[in-house]
Amino acid sequence: MPGETEQLRHIYLFAGLSDSQLQEIARVMLDRKYRKGHIIFMEGEPGEAVYLLKTGRVKIFKQDEEGREQILHYINPGEVFAEVVLFDGGDYPACAEVVEDAQVGMIRNRDMDDLLLKNPSIALALLKIMARRLRVSQRQIMELALKDTTRRLASVLLELAREHGSPAEGGLRIEMNLTNQELASMIGTSRETANRILSEFRRDKAIAVTRQGIVIFKDRLKTWL
């Protein structure tokens, strides 16, 4: 219980809750382990739970009618996902797939509903936190919609470097095995277009591609925004 409470303390959804409130949430959290390739949920399925990633990595993505993926986000340990269904119980708006063996904490909606009915102070705190998060998300969506493909890819690489980067060769190496197709899916373009833009970034010395992954030189890459 103490370890789970400490994990909950460091994620945005539960930031600001008291120790006793975090302990109440930890009591209803179930532990699950998934192997690489496991689909945790599919878009359109009933939203039955919110998840906390403890170890591993999870990919959030959408699929079109032809089965093509658009990657929305990679979830890191300590992050919550599927929180959008926490209060309304609607369908999952995207798919979640395990890309590295993962340990996941799961809080079922019905358990959270019971908890919030007994502890209205927790409900109020969560609503305030989610309202702030929604404003940030809306601003990010607007910024992304106004950017062209080159600026979108630069933004995605900078965000990946911020979330998954480690110091290397004067820059930040993205600690993920990403294909050019996956990068293309993240910005809604073709692999050929992504290849062309990455080549431009390399020629400009904004990035370097090594066997260990992509190295981002932040100051230089920011000039493409």
Automatic annotation (TrEMBL):
The keyword Transcription regulation applies. Keywords: DNA-binding, Transcription, Transcription regulation. Residues 147-221 form the HTH crp-type domain. Residues 13-133 form the Cyclic nucleotide-binding domain. PROSITE patterns: CNMP_BINDING_3, HTH_CRP_1, HTH_CRP_2. One of its GO terms (molecular function) is DNA binding. Transmembrane segments: none annotated. GO terms for cellular component: cytosol. This is Cyclic nucleotide-binding domain-containing protein. It comes from Desulfofundulus thermobenzoicus.
